[in-house]
Design brief:
The protein is α/β, with parallel strands linked by helices and 355 residues long. It has two domains: 145 residues, Leucine Dehydrogenase, chain A, domain 1 (Rossmann fold, 3-Layer(aba) Sandwich); 159 residues, Rossmann fold (3-Layer(aba) Sandwich), CATH 3.40.50. It has twelve helices and twelve strands. The protein has a seven-stranded mixed beta sheet, with helices on both faces. A five-stranded mixed beta sheet has the order 1-2-4-3-5. Helix 1 runs parallel beside helix 3 and helix 4 crosses helix 5. The longest helix has 19 residues. The radius of gyration is 20 Å and the shape is globular.
């Protein structure tokens, strides 16, 4: 299955919308191009005494509405075009919500699952030192993303403060409570996705009770959305993480699944469910499909196999442009990521951009 270039897909969407809205050429060009792109490399001494050089990126897409805003992800597949696309989507997301923020994104090529806490700390601080000259509370404010946590955000804030010579907790959001974060921030993205889904269902005269839901991705956003939807009466029939998927058409006990993952670090081998592949749950028969992992998981090649009539994009860009067109022909409704997963950034304004 061919993976589309995420940045080209983002630009294609912008061009389509610009044509519909008849945007001025300068507005179109501003959205198609990034303000600044930074690629950095930095050495880190690993636990075994060897030194590894890591590569990271920070892309600042647009700041017409305010400071750049967007997460930092740690993943083995991070690349510049992915980060460009994510930064572009952040600009659109903050604009959809009419927030005084722009769009940015960052990432480091690594496998955090194979790194110790000490190695992650060193790597994070090395990356923070490299990007410190171009971020700041009024310039560019990173946040957690795939495989980054509140603790990692605290390391970035600490290292940035060291570099700037003054304590600057506002350089980052998604911090722990003890580091100046806000209660509810961890749940904000998943809860926001649930609110959007409930609002859509209400608009069409329906509700969440008894709806069957399959969720690809059981990280922060996916697991919290699963728990909240489960507690609201939905039937979660499948969830997955990077290790694989579990399925039970009669419904999973999501609270038990969360405890199982906390204990085993994976959803697989959950009692009362059968193991399956991460990709298989995309093609399950269900009322609502929630891709909550990575971009471009639904593309032209597999769109025809999607059985759900409603897709909630809890991940960033999980449906490619070609996949979107194929789904539209089938009559599949897609609630876009720039609204569906905007709960985290919306929460910033509700809490004075202190999180």
């Amino acid at each position: 299955m061919t993976q589309p270039n995420p940045h080209e897909a983002a630009k294609e969407t912008i061009n389509q919308v610009a044509d519909i809205l008849k945007l001025d050429d300068w507005v179109r060009e501003s959205l198609l191009n990034t303000h600044r792109e930074i690629k950095v490399s930095f050495p880190v001494e690993m636990d075994d005494g060897t030194v590894k050089v890591f590569t990271g990126y920070r892309v600042q897409h647009n700041h017409m509405m305010g400071p750049f805003k967007g997460g930092i992800r740690y993943h083995w597949d991070v690349n510049l075009d992915e980060v460009r696309a994510l930064a572009t989507w952040m600009t659109i997301k903050t604009s959809v919500l009419d927030l005084p923020l722009g769009g940015g994104k960052g990432g480091v090529i690594c496998n955090p699952k194979e790194m110790s806490k000490k190695e992650l700390d060193k790597m994070t601080r090395g990356f923070a030192r490299r990007i410190a000259p171009v971020i700041g509370p009024l310039v560019d404010i990173p946040a957690p993303d795939v495989y980054t946590t509140a603790e990692i955000m605290g390391w970035i804030a600490d290292e940035y403060s060291r570099c700037s010579g003054k304590k600057s907790p506002g350089v980052i959001t998604g911090k722990s409570i003890k580091d100046g974060g806000s209660e509810g921030r961890v749940e904000a993205t998943g809860r926001g996705g649930l609110f959007v889904l409930q609002k859509y269902l209400k608009e069409i005269g329906d509700n969440l009770k008894g709806k069957t839901i399959a969720i690809q991705g059981f990280g922060n956003a996916g697991s919290i959305f699963a728990r909240l939807a489960f507690e609201s009466g939905a039937k979660i029939i499948a969830v997955s993480d990077s290790s694989g998927a579990i399925i039970n058409e009669q419904g999973l006990d999501i609270l038990a699944v969360i405890k199982h993952k906390e204990k085993t670090r994976k959803v697989g081998d959950f009692p009362g469910a059968r193991n399956s592949s991460n990709e298989s749950i995309l093609e399950m028969k269900c009322d609502v499909l929630v891709p909550a992992a990575l971009e471009n998981v639904i593309v032209r090649e597999n769109a025809s196999k999607i059985k759900a009539k409603l897709i909630l994009e809890l991940a960033n860009g999980p449906v490619s442009s070609a996949g979107q067109k194929a789904l539209e022909k089938k009559g599949t409704v897609v609630i876009p990521d720039v609204l569906a997963n905007a709960g985290g950034v919306q929460y910033l304004i509700m809490n004075g951009i202190k999180t």
